[in-house]
Amino acid sequence: MLNLRTCVAKLRPLTASQTVRTISHQRLAAPRTFQQIRCYSAPVAAEPFLSGTSSNYVEEMYYAWLENPKSVHKSWDIFFRNANAGAAPGTAYQSPPPLSTSLSTLTQAQFLGQAQPNVDKLVEDHLAVQSLIRAYQVRGHHIAKLDPLGISCVNFDDAPVTVSSNVGFYGLDESDLDKVFHLPTTTFIGGNESALPLREIIRRLEMAYCQHIGVEFMFINDLEQCQWIRRKFETPGIMQFTNEEKRTLLARLVRSTRFEEFLHRKWSSEKRFGLEGCEVLIPALKTIIDKSSEKGVDYVIMGMPHRGRLNVLANVIRKELEQIFCQFDSKLEAADEGSGDVKYHLGMYHRRINRVTDRNITLSLVANPSHLEAADPVVQGKTKAEQFYCGDTEGKKVMSILLHGDAAFAGQGIVYETFHLSDLPSYTTHGTVHVVVNNQIGFTTDPRMARSSPYPTDVARVVNAPIFHVNADDPEAVVYVCNVAAEWRSTFHKDVVVDLVCYRRNGHNEMDEPMFTQPLMYKQIRKQKPVLQKYAELLISQGVVNQPEYEEEIAKYDKICEEAHARSKDEKILHIKHWLDSPWPGFFTLDGQPRSMTCPSTGLNEEDLTHIGQVASSVPVEDFTIHGGLSRILKTRGEMVKNRTVDWALAEYMAFGSLLKDGIHIRLSGQDVERGTFSHRHHVLHDQNVDKRTCIPMNHLWPNQAPYTVCNSSLSEYGVLGFELGFAMASPNALVLWEAQFGDFHNTAQCIIDQFICPGQAKWVRQNGIVLLLPHGMEGMGPEHSSARPERFLQMCNDDPDVFPKLDDFDVRQLYDCNWIVVNCSTPANFFHVLRRQILLPFRKPLIIFTPKSLLRHPEARSSFDDMLPGTHFLRVIPDSGPAAQNPEQVKRVLFCTGKVYYDLTRERKARQMEADVAITRVEQLSPFPFDLLQREAEKYPAAELVWCQEEHKNQGYYDYVKPRLRTTINRAKPVWYAGREPAAAPATGNKKTHLTELQRLLDTAFNLDAFKDLS
């Protein structure tokens, strides 16, 4: 007797008569759509028909019949013919004649009213078989033998894995097992056969879906894609390997396994986050790369957490083993400069020959901190950039592979954010192969405590990515699945997930004791035979290799490791530049010599300024209707150009436009950046009469300009900022900007800022010129959208507050030594210059700009063309130029400030008629701190009190950063007072009246010459 799994028999189909009665009440006009069949269903059995699974089978039969009437049972052929011919409701279904009667000898009239119980049963049975096939396709993975340990804790609450002793679920009898059934077009288990006995159908379904591979794909709503996957797993005998392929697989397993064993012998007390328990990952990745290379890919960018990274570097990227072994020697420095990072966080870039395809392949493994999935969007951004720069618009040459741990894949939201970028036009990388190293455990946390879904991979279903679960102790199944995954990506250019169900032989690291928390699992692991040993025994039993050959393969790789270990003791061998994941060849030299530490003028000639301004104030496309309000905005821009002035938006436009002329690609990304959150930018114009017709004037500036990419992002900060960081990694000859909708939105991207942007060069010697635009300013709009939290960025600056730097080329050399640049511009011209300086510098540093909100339209926040002409440059400090500067000896107070508060201070100073008594100096560049210029300002006003004035609260903003540096500047000759809001927990009040009261108190303090008598 054949046993059927209830978990694949949960959905019981309608009987044929129910189905027929339901459908026969339709009137169809040829050719009909299946939706028409559904729309007019009769009450009889309509509800179960519409809600049950069987409607899918009828639909599949209907479409199969449209293509080939002979592909369905004759009774269905008659029904569909009659329905399409316009048969009256209730008459489309006619019982067919006995099987012994030739259909061609009977007329339609002979069927009317005839009852054929045996034929009805045959129709029901065929429909039941189709339901059975579908159940295996949908749920076969539930009972597949995926766990090498045999203790899988995957929980399917809605489908308990039990065994049925009969076949009655589908209205079939045990006697039906040897009956022959016609196979539907939605299965390939028949191979060249169109019909099979039920017993053989079930056996083949079990072999396809319930062995060491579990396939999740039936949620995909594309029939072609589903058919493609069915063909790959259902076709009899499709998973075959030649003896040569098996020997290659064994050799790769030898390298993977013996590498870990070598590290364990040499450095048994060192953390390395080894791959033991999932050694098959190495042949899996090499298979994906081999197949992708065969399909035309020549650049693969990878990201992964720390587990197995050293093995991937050694045996996939093919990094020199001595460079890896150096990292274990405590006597050697891990970096040439900066902090360096631990060996299992480092990246690599390598171009080599793929020996399987004999094609060149470039492999890049992106460095990643312990924040596991944080590298996902970075890899995607870098991949997108490499595709962009080589003109690979379909992802045929450049691709990404992302490795994940099971707990992190399910638990970290950045995975979901990154998946949702996968199909967006400006972010898609045209398919990523995701490989999950499914240890079935987090650090010490069981899956039932770590996720609410059955599988860790369920998050991938949101983008209809097929998921291939595979038992990692079956190397051939793993390699087959990886081949299919690479082919899927090459064919459909969509994401795909390979879930390697494995185990972790040691604890979270090699020093950890896992028996504390998972005693039963680790008792089983201790008994588990390593996958290399299992596979070697299998191949020896098959006669593919013999024992001496196997031992020789092991000895050969052990010798390679020993020789590399000997070479690693040379102190000259280690160099951090061997670990670069994004080299920029040619950028750091000019004519073979290091580039000069100078920066040319960032000004622009008036002809170019005028030309850019005219394009910015026009619509360079004919028959294009813009919004009336936008027409007024463009007209205002045109008037400014005539008057030789710019506002904030126009200054940005001119900076971008001038760089495009010089061949610098510009990419501006973020939430609503095309128009601008504050409706100031309007870089994408929308035709008011033609849906989705747009125009980007910036791309119509010059005949051979670089392209300008401006793209609204998904409502994501963590994912999108990581993506743009990765994009900026690919080339130094691009200006990549991410704009937060409001400055405080960067909070949810803090991991990217903390782990990649701030310390990136110190940890990985990786320069990056990404620009963060963070709208900032206290304007009574509440605590959520007021502060970009400048104190956080300034706290992470690496300049010493107690040391006055003694440098030649002070301004540029200071920039070279800092970890990032932090500015708060108060004029459009200075904003223009700092954006251009970002590209004209001979190196790349991240740039943090606190951009304004109210200043976007402030009548005084305007700049003249004169401030942007050749010879001009970015002003780190803008001194007072009014009456106070004319008689500096008479000045009683110098107010140092930054950003928008300057305009409040000047208005108040004028109202109090104190222009000659109080000087106001603007600090435009906060980090690196302009010690030299502020020293000059302090010495210029010898009798004046020095006050730092800010609109932010005292425990926030700039004060804690500026005060010690100002005191170092003046050698602590006098105190530095504070004028601003009092300390607070929230960044701003939500009450407009309170905001204005606080602002007035700030101004009163700043201009009251007796205000500091009681302060210390």
Automatic annotation (TrEMBL):
<comment type="similarity">
    <text>Belongs to the alpha-ketoglutarate dehydrogenase family.</text>
</comment>
<dbReference type="Pfam" id="PF02779">
    <property type="entry name" value="Transket_pyr"/>
</dbReference>
<keyword id="KW-0786">Thiamine pyrophosphate</keyword>
<dbReference type="Pfam" id="PF00676">
    <property type="entry name" value="E1_dh"/>
</dbReference>
<dbReference type="GO" id="GO:0045252">
    <property type="term" value="C:oxoglutarate dehydrogenase complex"/>
</dbReference>
<dbReference type="GO" id="GO:0046872">
    <property type="term" value="F:metal ion binding"/>
</dbReference>
<dbReference type="GO" id="GO:0005634">
    <property type="term" value="C:nucleus"/>
</dbReference>
<protein>
    <recommendedName>
        <fullName>2-oxoglutarate dehydrogenase complex component E1</fullName>
        <ecNumber>1.2.4.2</ecNumber>
    </recommendedName>
</protein>
<keyword id="KW-0560">Oxidoreductase</keyword>
<keyword id="KW-0809">Transit peptide</keyword>
<keyword id="KW-0106">Calcium</keyword>
<keyword id="KW-1017">Isopeptide bond</keyword>
<dbReference type="InterPro" id="IPR032106">
    <property type="entry name" value="2-oxogl_dehyd_N"/>
</dbReference>
<dbReference type="GO" id="GO:0030976">
    <property type="term" value="F:thiamine pyrophosphate binding"/>
</dbReference>
<keyword id="KW-0539">Nucleus</keyword>
<dbReference type="InterPro" id="IPR042179">
    <property type="entry name" value="KGD_C_sf"/>
</dbReference>
<dbReference type="InterPro" id="IPR005475">
    <property type="entry name" value="Transketolase-like_Pyr-bd"/>
</dbReference>
<dbReference type="GO" id="GO:0005759">
    <property type="term" value="C:mitochondrial matrix"/>
</dbReference>
<dbReference type="InterPro" id="IPR001017">
    <property type="entry name" value="DH_E1"/>
</dbReference>
<dbReference type="InterPro" id="IPR011603">
    <property type="entry name" value="2oxoglutarate_DH_E1"/>
</dbReference>
<keyword id="KW-0324">Glycolysis</keyword>
<dbReference type="InterPro" id="IPR029061">
    <property type="entry name" value="THDP-binding"/>
</dbReference>
<keyword id="KW-0496">Mitochondrion</keyword>
<dbReference type="InterPro" id="IPR031717">
    <property type="entry name" value="ODO-1/KGD_C"/>
</dbReference>
<dbReference type="Pfam" id="PF16870">
    <property type="entry name" value="OxoGdeHyase_C"/>
</dbReference>
<keyword id="KW-0460">Magnesium</keyword>
<keyword id="KW-0832">Ubl conjugation</keyword>
<dbReference type="Pfam" id="PF16078">
    <property type="entry name" value="2-oxogl_dehyd_N"/>
</dbReference>
<comment type="function">
    <text>2-oxoglutarate dehydrogenase (E1-like) component of the 2-oxoglutarate dehydrogenase multienzyme complex (OGDHC) which mediates the decarboxylation of alpha-ketoglutarate in the tricarboxylic acid cycle. The OGDHC complex catalyzes the overall conversion of 2-oxoglutarate to succinyl-CoA and CO(2) while reducing NAD(+) to NADH. The OGDHC complex is mainly active in the mitochondrion. Involved in the inhibition of cell proliferation and in apoptosis.</text>
</comment>
<dbReference type="GO" id="GO:0004591">
    <property type="term" value="F:oxoglutarate dehydrogenase (succinyl-transferring) activity"/>
</dbReference>
<dbReference type="GO" id="GO:0006099">
    <property type="term" value="P:tricarboxylic acid cycle"/>
</dbReference>
<keyword id="KW-0479">Metal-binding</keyword>
<dbReference type="GO" id="GO:0006096">
    <property type="term" value="P:glycolytic process"/>
</dbReference>
